[in-house]
Automatic annotation (TrEMBL):
Quaternary structure and partners: Homotetramer.
Biological role stated in the UniProt entry: Catalyzes the phosphorylation of D-fructose 6-phosphate to fructose 1,6-bisphosphate by ATP, the first committing step of glycolysis.
Gene Ontology biological process terms from the UniProt entry: canonical glycolysis; fructose 1,6-bisphosphate metabolic process; fructose 6-phosphate metabolic process
UniProt-annotated binding residues for ATP: 12, 73-74, 103-106
Chief place where the protein resides: cytoplasm
Name of the protein in question: ATP-dependent 6-phosphofructokinase
Cellular component GO terms, alphabetical: 6-phosphofructokinase complex
Pathway linked to the protein: Carbohydrate degradation; glycolysis; D-glyceraldehyde 3-phosphate and glycerone phosphate from D-glucose: step 3/4
Binding site for Mg(2+): 104
Pfam families: PFK
Record family assignment: Belongs to the phosphofructokinase type A (PFKA) family. ATP-dependent PFK group I subfamily. Prokaryotic clade 'B1' sub-subfamily.
Length: 323
């Protein structure tokens, strides 16, 4: 009987997960493995929701957002009882290794499986880009492109009414979506958790620009730095600015993955199978300096996230000269 690789997606869905699933299935088939799809993440693993995924099952999914394996968060897997149930399912289905696509919380689960003796490989799938060991996570590029597109539409409306648009984006405690999209989309101001901000200074700048004839400004705020509605309320109350808050929400997670996310997911899936083929586990795959890398999962999760201050400094230079 062929060796079996299990694969699950966990945590928040992200564009490119399907491309990663497809890559694992195709690479495993080429290596002589079969792939067992685990539905709804660790919850599905505990419940035994496991079924074979064949190459024909992944045809055409590279362009689709979300995840065909569904996803869920699972508190039970954090308990020893839940972990033992999962281990029993893995043994019952003769699964020799597991690929986990997800973010930090999902990787904590992957680490548990590895420490239970199951060779496990993590692929970073989260729009937040908040895993320190890799330059980019799957889904981040698509989310940024999506935000840039929405910024353009919102600016059209803000221009028509001569308003300030305060756009709140996702990212948890990492401001990368706001930073990258803010630069690419030409935001006048970016508020991120990594940098202290002075709301009164921002208001003064906006007022000054309005005096010079620029009646519209876009302020991009990362959810980890505050609420867009609170910022807009302050602008209206204290600076008498006509400010509108827009929360982009889940539209950042959905949609067709970008070419960059598809390529990264494909290469990372290939590397994951190559590692399991060699019997290697307890690793996470990523990209660094535009090259696919893998690293010990414990070391990867212990790294501190490094803020791209160089990018923020570039933005400051541009924003100071905006009129």
């Amino acid at each position: 009987m062929k060796k079996r690789i299990g694969i699950l997606t966990s945590g928040g869905d992200t564009p490119g997960m399907n491309a990663g699933i497809r890559s694992v299935v195709m690479a495993a088939d080429a290596a002589g493995f079969s792939v067992m799809g685990i539905t709804k993440g660790y919850a599905g693993l505990i419940e035994g929701r496991v079924d074979r995924i064949k190459t024909e099952d992944v045809a055409g999914i590279v362009e689709k957002g979300g995840t065909i394996l569904k996803t869920a968060r699972c508190e039970e897997f954090k308990t020893q009882e839940g972990q033992q149930k999962a281990l029993q399912v893995i043994k019952a289905f003769d699964i020799s290794g597991v690929v986990v696509i997800g973010g930090d919380g999902s990787f904590q689960g992957a680490k548990v499986l590895s420490h239970l003796g199951v060779p496990t490989i993590g692929i970073p799938g989260t729009i937040d880009n908040d895993l320190a060991y890799t330059d980019f996570t799957i889904g981040f590029d698509t989310a940024v492109n999506g935000v840039v597109g929405e910024m353009s539409r919102i600016r059209d409306t803000m221009n028509s009414h001569e308003r300030v648009g305060v756009i709140e984006v996702m990212g948890n405690k990492c401001g990368d979506i706001a930073l990258y999209a803010g630069i690419a989309g030409g935001a006048e101001h970016i508020i991120i958790p990594e940098v202290e901000f002075d709301i009164d200074y921002i208001c003064d700048k906006i007022i000054g620009n309005r005096i010079k004839g620029n009646m519209t400004s876009i302020v991009l705020i990362a959810e980890g730095a505050g609420k867009g509605e609170a910022v807009a309320n302050y602008m209206r109350a204290k600076a008498k600015l006509d400010a509108k808050a827009i929360v982009l929400g889940y539209i950042q997670r959905g949609g067709t993955p970008s070419a960059a996310d598809r390529l990264r997911a494909t290469s990372m899936g290939m590397r994951a199978v190559q590692l399991l083929e060699k019997g290697i586990g307890n690793r996470v795959v990523g990209i660094r300096d535009n090259k696919i890398i893998d690293e010990d999962i414990d070391e990867a999760l212990s790294k501190e996230l490094i803020f791209r201050k160089d990018l923020y400094d570039e933005f400051k230079i541009m924003s100071e000269n905006m009129q």
